[in-house]
Structure formats: C-alpha cells, structure tokens
Amino acid sequence: MLSLKLIIFLVLTGLAVYAFVHALSKKIRILTLGAKENRFDNPRKRLKNFIVNVLLQGKMLREFYGYIHLFIFWGFIFIALGEIPFMVEGLFPSVHVPLLGTSPYFYLIKDILSTLVFVGLIIGVIRRWIVKPKRLYRTPEAAIIVILIFLVIITEWLTSGAKVVLDANSAYNLAFIYHLFAGLYQGYSAETLSVIIEICWWTHVLIILGFLVYIPNSKHMHLLASPFNGYFATLKPAGGQVPAMDLLDEKVTEYGVGRIENFTWKQLLDCFSCGECGRCMDNCPANISGKPLNPKKLLSRELKDHLLEKGAEMTKLGLKSTAHLTDEDFRKIAKEDRECAEILQKHLIGDIFTRDELWSCTTCSACQTLCPVSNEHVNKIIDMRRYEVMNENNYAPELQLAFRNVESKYNPWGVSWSERAGWAKDLDIPVMKTAENPEYLFWVGCAGSFDNRAKKVSVATAKILKAAGVNFAILGREEKCCGDFARRAGNEYLFQFMAKENVGILNNYGVKKIITTCPHCFNTLKNEYPELGGNYEVIHHTQFINQLIGEGKLKLNKDVRLPEQRIVYHDSCYLGRYQQEYDAPRALFNKIPGVQLVEMDRNHDKSFCCGAGGSRMWMEENLGDRINNLRVEQALSKDPQAIGANCPYCITMLEDGVKDKAKPERNVHVVDPAELIAKMI
Ligand code: SF4
Ligand code: SF4
C-alpha cells in the first residue's frame, strides 16, 4: 500500500511536471511560428560544438567569471544526479540507487562541486549586487534564482548531515560537507534527527519542484534553451552568415523581417537562450558610445517579450502569420479582445524596436563573437533593415545618396566609374582586359580606387606586388562596388545586382585568386559571392605580403631606416572577427625595424569597431559619442606615434578621430603596414 508521504510526493511531483511541460510546450509552439531554417545538417560538427561550447563552456572561459560558471554548470549536473538517490532514499530509506546512492566517490565529487557552486554563487551575488557592473541586471528574477539555488544546496546538506548522524551510510564516507553538517547535530536524539530530516527533505523537494515550474516561466528558460542553441549554432563562416534572398520568388509579399514570426525558429530560439550575461553590450560600440542600441536588451527584452506576447496570442488563435490579416480581420478580433488585436498589429520596427536602434549597428559582430550561448545578433539587424529598405523605403537620406551613387556610378563615393583606375596612372599596372594570363587579380575596391587616403595603400600594395614579381592585374573600369555596404544596409536588390555584375566579369576572365586591401571586399568576395556563383581564393594584402616575404620573393632593403615609432594596432572587424586574421598585419609591422608594436586594451576579437561598418560609413552619426573618436582615445592612451590599421574604412575613421582628439603637435598618423613595407623595397 502506498504511504501517505509517497502519495503526497507523487501528487506534487505530478502537478509540477504538468506545469513544467505545459509551460515548455507553450514556448515550443511559439518557436514553431518561426520561419523554416535547416540547422540539422552536419551532426558531427554540431556535436563537437556542443561539447566545446555547452559541456565545456568554451566561450565562457574567456573571462574569470566563466570558470565560476563552468563549476556552477557541472555542479548543477551533479546536484541534479544526486537528486535521484536523495528522493528515492527519502521515500524508501532502505533503498539505495546503485552507483549514485552507493559510491563514496560520487558523493565526494558532488560535495566538491556543490561547494564550488555555493562559493560561485556568493561571488556572483557580490559581483551583481555590490560591485554592480552595468552589464548585469539586478532584477527580482535574478535574485529569486540565486535564493532558490542556495536553498536547494543548503537543504540537501542539512538533510544529509542529519542522515550521517542517524544512519551512517558508507556511501557518505568521503562526503566532507555532509560530515561538516553532521557536526551541527551532535547530541541530537534519533527522533529529533528523523523530524529534522523530514522537514529538510520536504523543504528541499518543494524547492526543487518550484524550480521546475519556475524555469520555463522565467528568464531562466535559457537554462533549457541554450544547450539546444549551442547545438544548432551556425556552422557558416563568420563572414558568410547573411543568406541571399530569392528576389525572383513571386510568392514573397514581404521582404526581410518586419514581424516577429518572420524570423526563423533559430532566430527565435536565440531570444530564449540569452542568459543576460551582458558580454554583448559590454563590447558593443553602439551601446558604449551612448546610442540607443543594446544587443542584450534587443534579445532578452525587446524581441523576447514581444515574441512571448504575440506568440501567445497567435497560438491561441491558431495563426501561423499575421501578414495576411486585413483591417476587417483585426476589427473582428478587437471586438472579442481589443488587447489581442493591438498585440497582433504591432510591427517590430517602430513598435518594439526603434529605427535609431536599428541603424546604430555597425555589424561589427563583437556581440555574437563573444556571446557564450552562440546567439546570432547581426542577421536579425540586417533582416529588419531589409524590411525597412525593401518594403517601407524608409532609411536615412545619406544612404539614399550612397545607393544612388552605386546604382549610377558603381561606387558609393559618386565619382565617375571611368576614374576607377586613376590611382594607377603612371604605375604601369596591367589591366585584366589586356593582361596575359595574370595569376592574381588585385581587387582594389571603391575606397582604394576613389578615396585619396586609401589610394596610397593601393599604390603601396601595387608597388610591393611588382617588386615581388607577382603576375597580377586589376579590373580597372570594369570593377564595381562589391556590394558590402548595400547588403549591410538592407538593400539586397542592390547588393545582388552589383554582386552578379562582378561575378559575371570575374568568371568571364577566369579569375581564381584575388588579393585585396579592403577587408569588406575580402569578406564579400570570399564568403558571399559563392552563393551567387563566384568562387575565388581571396587573400588580404597583409597576408599576401607576409607570404611573399616568407617565400623570399619580396626582399626588404635593410639599409632603409624608417624613423623609430611606437605603433598601436587596431584590428578591423572585417579582417579580425569576420576572418579571424589577427596575425598577418601584426607580423608585417613587426618586420619593420624601428617599429614598436603595442596593443590596445580592446584587441583581437574584443577589438572595438572604428564605426564605419554596417553602412555606417555612409550615414551621419548624430546620436551619442562618435565611435571613431572613442577608438582613437583608446589608441592615444597607449601614447603612440601612429595607429596601425588594415582597412580603408578604419583608416578614414581613425584619421578623422585623430583630427578631433589628438593635439596636432603630437603628430599622430594612421598607417597601413603595406605603406611602411613599400618604403623598404
Ligand atoms: S554587431 Fe556590433 S554594433 Fe551591432 S549590435 Fe553587435 S556589437 Fe553592437
Ligand atoms: S545575447 Fe549572449 S552575450 Fe548578450 S546577454 Fe545574451 S547571452 Fe550574454
């Protein structure tokens, strides 16, 4: 016959499990509103990512607190495993679950990890509520989870300590914490201990069941969602994650994402996976410079809250989309439930997310590179920009000018396309049309062709290529804007138009290998053209020059003495985070006698954007501080004579920042390593 204790336990557990499954299934139904996306390919690679980034918390370990999180994660797994013998023995004292309930080593490991969790929580509490870093929210939800975890651990220790005194279980022999707590009960009678065990056991059970119900109904849903997010994380290269749109599909009535349900299910899963750690906002140049965009708020508040409210209404009404609903439909819904109709009519941009937020993003990718749960922020921004540009025709007038320039002159500067090879005048550089089987194409890019400062890098690179005897040519007038800025600005029409034009020309010449000085062109040619039929081996000029020196094809003149200078190096987003190339430019600077290369505080994949990416180069910066000025201030704090860079956009932005922030007498300049190398040949 079932004991009363067992009946109460089963009833409570049944209710908690029901509430858990109910809440979880609601969330899953909401996720299924998202558009289709195949994230089930390549299970082996996904499993590897899962092991590295979920089980081993690889991305977390970049910070000291990540190690604490790792202990908490594994501590939790062992605490959860320990619940099995704890519950079973509480109900059936004579039954010991094999291994978990009988192995002293299991309890030893669990004790060690529980202690680390306990200490980690204390550090977490001090950090969040006493140190108060801006990136962590101090919400009641955050406090509740900490209290619950403390209570889970303490009630288990109190129960097990009493059990050690009452009935020495050999499995507890190595459980030092249990023995420590047992010390509290010395001299207690068996009856008293039994009562204590019952009270603590039930308290523990109620907390665990409360936990079960609380998790899927709170922000701590990320505990359940983020492991899946880790498994389904993108496998594409960092620079190739913006999918090409099918612009010929006549069934498509809305481009981009203007409604939450138009995001893919994985993009929606990101919202549930955000653990609100704040790493993204801490490294977001838009947020740091005082603009309204905050990538953490975007996912964990704006998009998630809207997803929950709209998703709940849509699933209630059995709607898969709200795109087809007419005013009449909304009137009918409003008659029944006005609030529901209002929620269904909300648009992402304007109602949930402001246009200022949307256009503040530089697509620097710091947020998603550093996000420990593999959230993907940048595509969401680009999807929403696509909606604004392609459906609503709603974007900054400066962008309109840049778009028009590309349409008519094939470059955003608006200089006549016939001037494209003007920088190469008198340099005797072969042009594809007349060159004989060039091995390499030097893709100059719009900046390298039209911007006076960037032209100097083009000239330096061409001189180096010639000195090394590289068989190369340029496209000259046939080269057109690669389309990078148009794509990041959401103008997929323009991007695809330019890309297809370029791919046609490149394929016509049978181009296989491309050298470029612009990381934006590099990324587009290498990672985005393949989807449109252009497959090339693309190399950044800093990589190529290193290669030439390494192979002995480029000899540096040791007699040339450049002035001694301290150069602080700036990693560009599109060569660094997008291509993971951090070494080549540094290696070049280090080859130059007299150069002392120093690092910024924010370097490598934590580098701080110059402010030009994501089409921001072509927009006014009216909100907050200027991002380029902040970056220059960071550079100047290292007391350099020069700032080293590898991207024409960065060079422009940093030079502007130097004009604003550096005293003229300091004579700080911005330099690409190719410019110094060219002086040594
Ligand atoms: S891509 Fe860069 S600017 Fe945009 S939200 Fe992420 S960190 Fe901020
Ligand atoms: S999006 Fe990622 S990095 Fe940003 S707060 Fe959420 S979990 Fe942290």
TrEMBL record:
Entry's Gene Ontology cellular component terms: plasma membrane
InterPro entries: 4Fe4S_Fe-S-bd, 4Fe4S_Fe_S_CS, Cys_rich_dom, HdrC_iron-sulfur_subunit, Helical_ferredxn, NarG-like_sf
GO-annotated molecular function: 4 iron, 4 sulfur cluster binding; metal ion binding; oxidoreductase activity
Entry keywords, A to Z: 4Fe-4S, Iron, Iron-sulfur, Membrane, Metal-binding, Oxidoreductase, Transmembrane, Transmembrane helix
Domain of life according to the entry: Bacteria
Transmembrane regions: 6-24, 64-88, 108-130, 142-159, 171-188, 195-215
A Pfam family hit: CCG
Residue stretches making up the 4Fe-4S ferredoxin-type domain: 265-294
Protein name: 4Fe-4S dicluster domain-containing protein
Organism encoding this protein: Dehalobacter restrictus
Lineage: Bacteria, Bacillati, Bacillota, Clostridia, Eubacteriales
